[in-house]
Amino acid sequence: MISLSDIQVVFGRGTPLQKQALKKIELTIETGSFVTVIGSNGAGKSTLLGVLAGDVLPTAGRVTIGNVDVSRKPTAARAGQVARVFQDPLAGSCGALTIEENLALAAARGKVRGLMPALGSKRREFFKERIASLNLGLENRLKDRMDLLSGGQRQAVSLVMATLAGSDVLLLDEHTAALDPGMAEFVMQLTDQVVTERKLTTLMVTHSMRQALDYGDRTVMLHGGEIVLDVSGGSRKDLQVEDLIEMFRKIRGQKLDDDELLIG
Amino acid sequence: MSQIAFWGAVELGLVFAFVAIGVYLAFRILDFPDLTVDGSFPLGAAVAAVLIISGLDPWLSTAVAMVAGAAAGLVTATLNVRFKILNLLASILTMIALFSVNLRVMGKPNVALLNQDTMLSAFFGQGVPEYLVRPIFVGLLVIVAVVLVWRFLESDAGLAMRATGANSRMARAQGVNTGGQIYLGMALSNALVALGGALFAQTNGFADVTSGVGTIVVGLAAVIIGETLLGARGILLALIGCVFGSIAYRLAIQLALSSDALGLKASDLNFVTAVLVAIALILPRLRRSGGAA
Q: Across the interface, do B156 and A104 touch by the CB < 8 Å criterion?
């Protein structure tokens, strides 16, 4: 289980640029649930993700992941509990390393790294199997450098990397936003499959309302650093993209003409 | 070029292969432009020379020299990681300070190691001429260093260090303490450079406070020439490239300076160095654009 209690994040405290990115966030995510997070730019989505990942340490409040208080733990210290796929395909893997070296890095996430060879024959076999399940033909290119892959391929491999070592939560940061529509669809379906098969507790930030409603079992909407909508179960099933846009409009008190939000 | 001059160049190239591997670790693996080496090379020479003269076992003296080099690397890493000083600037500060430290260690600008037992003494007088013993001995140590560094960089721990240099954000997300990796890498890099310095003192019979000037350029030249010769495919090839790059660099210099047709003098060394490095940098570019055309 993951819980955020009374989380506040203030950037640039005491300066003229002081900004409260998150205001008293209360959020509890049951083990095994798949939560989608939406919100306009500056709503606090990335900050929320950062608070869970450890990139942002909250100004006040408590973060617990799997019954461990990680409030003051930096990213590297809680990596054993947190798996992650970044928005930028280049950010989640090392371009200069081979595919199998990236996989080996991820397989040891949060573990003590010793002096044994990173790529034994057993591990290679395991990696090959996992990569083959993508059906992208990458299993024969494990010795290729990561930067030879396309953005979509890299994101697909990143997803595999995120599941090699166990985790208490999987964080997806608009991980299909930088891909072409076809590849985005592929990566999203792959995500759904992986999350369902492995029963991963997942938090996915997305710009697409379509995605937010089509995937997962709970949707949270952020605005101005606060949770303004939290739906799951039956009431979520009946919710349409149009309803979400209507809510957005009401909250912002203005006409919404951001086409980006409609793109499914 | 006489045979003695040839083997002399090979020997110097092998000594500086340690510098090249150290520079490769800092520049290529950690992406840390480290000028500390201009200070840690003469530091290694100074510590080894002074300890050998004081009667300490030369192998032990050399080990202490490596520890001193590692400490110099840790100072640079601390300035960068702990106090957030820009990496290049942090290394320049350590380098400048080391000049004074080296003078303190030796007590004078120059220490001679004549008639002292060195790591090589036991191998002299066994029927092999001295001008061959030196490169063979240093070459064997280079092979040991290459194998150890190669195995390290292909281990789980080594992957963490490579990820730190290639994509530190990703490394942290994978649980790698990136600051710790910089401490470790800088210590390792400068220990190797100091080992080069200690061997330089023992093969040449002296330690000099000015011998560090330009160490970084020589190290970088070796790394770049190696990459030009062997390409950048894989860690082992890159490390072998460092060694061959270092030797090729010394041979090219020796050839340029000893060829009467060119009319170069020993004082033209720095100019020749610059031209060689420039050529090594330009060649792969020409090859690439040639292939594309």
A: yes
* Buried residues in A230-242 as b, exposed as e (16+ CB within 10 A): ebeeeebeebebe
Examine the pLDDT at B161 and tell me if it is beyond 90. Answer: yes
Of B154, B167, B171, the CB nearest to A118: B154
pTM recorded for the entire structure: 0.91
Q: Yes or no: say if A56 and B149 are a contact pair by the CB < 8 Å rule.
A: no
Alpha helices by DSSP H, chain A: 45-53, 75-78, 99-107, 121-132, 151-164, 181-198, 209-214, 233-237, 241-252
* Chain A partners within 8 Å of B171 (Cβ): 76, 94, 105
Q: Per-residue pLDDT for B21 more than 70?
A: yes
Residue B245: is its pLDDT beyond 80?
Answer: yes
Residues of B in contact with A91 (CB under 8 A): 167, 169-170
**Under an 8 A CB cutoff, do A117 and B155 touch?**
yes
| Cβ neighbours for B144, distance < 8 A, ≥ 6 positions apart | none
Contact A106 B156 (CB under 8 A): no
Report the residue of chain B nearest A84, measured CA to CA.
B173
Which A residues 118-177 touch B at CB under 8 Å?
118-119
Provide the Cα torsion B36, B81, B32, B85; round to 10°.
-70
Tell me whether residues A92 and B173 touch, CB distance under 8 A: yes
Q: Is there a contact between B155 and A114 if contact means CB atoms under 8 Å apart?
A: yes
Cα within 13 Å of Cα(B194), Cβ side: 31
Overall average pLDDT of the B270-275 stretch = 84
Q: How far apart are CA A65 and CA A163, in angstroms?
A: 17
Q: Which amino acid is at A84?
A: R
Domains within chain A, CATH numbers bracketed: 2-93+167-261 (3.40.50.300)
Global ipTM: 0.89
Q: What is the mean pLDDT of chain A?
A: 90
Tally the domains of chain B.
1
Q: What domain range is B248 assigned to?
A: 3-292
- Residue B148's domain is classified under what CATH number? 1.10.3470
How far is C-alpha B168 from the geometric centre of its chain's CA atoms?
Answer: 25
Give me the count of residues in chain B.
293
